[in-house]
Amino acid sequence: MLKKTLPMAFLMACSLNVAADEADIRKMMEGKLGTKVESVTKSGYLGLYEVFADGNIVYTDEKGTAFIVGPLIDGKTMKNVTEERMKKLTAIRFGDLPFDRAIKQVRGDGKRVLATFEDPNCGYCKRLAKELQKLDNITIYTFLLPILSEDSVRKSKQIWCSADRAGAWNDWMVEGKAPSGREDCDTSAVAKNQEFGRKLNISGTPTIFFANGERIPGAIPLARIEQKLNQAK
C-alpha cells in the first residue's frame, strides 16, 4: 500500500512546488517590471521561465538574475519558440469581438472573415486598406482605434458619423479624400474601442485578427493574408 501511495504523494509535492515557484516568480517579476504578469510558464529551455506581461514575453531564471527579451530558437528544429507561443498567448475568441462597434464590409459571399483595428492617420493602415480592396468573398470588420493624435480621433468620429461609414473609410484610406462631415453623433463606439484596444494590449495599428483568433500586428502582404484566411477556416 505504501509503495502505491508514494508515487502519488511525490507527484502532488512536485505540483505544489512548481505552483509555488511560478507564484514566487510572478510576484518577483511584477515588482521588477512594474506591471501585471499574465502568466508564468516553464519554457523547457535552459531552466528559463517564460513570463508574459503587457503583450510581451520575457525569459528569466528562478532568481531573476537576468532577463532575456527576444526570440527563443529551438536548436534542433530551428523553430522560433517565442513566435509560436505569442500566437497562442495573444489569440482571442473571434466571436467575442464587439462587432456592433466596427465598420462592416461584405464582398462576394462574405464567408471568409477578418477584423482589423486601425488608426485613420496610420500609413501602414492605408497600405493595408489598399490590399484588402483586392480580396473577394470576405467580410471585414474595421474597428476605429485612434491612437496617434487628436486629429485621428476627429477623423474617426467623422467617419463613424457618416451615413456610409464604409464609403467614408475607403474614401479616406484608399482615395485620400478626407472626411468632412459631422462628428457630434453618438461616437461612444470610438472611445469604447480605445478602451477595448488597451484591454487586448494593442499597442500599434494595424492589428489584424483572423477567424481562428490569431493576431497579426502590422500590415502584411496580400498573399500572406490569403494564406491566413484559408488556414483560419
Characteristic key phrases:
alpha+beta; Glutaredoxin; four-stranded antiparallel beta sheet; 233 residues; five-stranded mixed beta sheet; Nuclear Transport Factor 2, Chain: A
As a percent range, the share of helical residues equals 40-55%
**Mean pLDDT score, rounded?**
90
- At the first level of CATH, what is the class of the largest domain? Alpha Beta
Shape: globular
The N- and C-terminal alpha carbons lie at a distance of 52 Å
Return the string of H and E elements.
HEEEEHEEHEHHHEEH
Contiguous helical run count:
7
Spans of at least 5 consecutive residues whose pLDDT stays below 50 are 1-19
- Major beta sheet, strand line-up: 5-7-6-8-9
Q: Class by helix and strand content?
A: alpha+beta
Radius of gyration: 22 Å
What is the CATH superfamily classification of the largest domain? Glutaredoxin
CATH level-3 fold name of the largest domain: Glutaredoxin
**E-strand count:** 9
Quick recap:
40% of the residues lie in helices and 19% in strands. The chain is built from 7 helices and 9 strands; from the N terminus they run H-E-E-E-E-H-E-E-H-E-H-H-H-E-E-H.
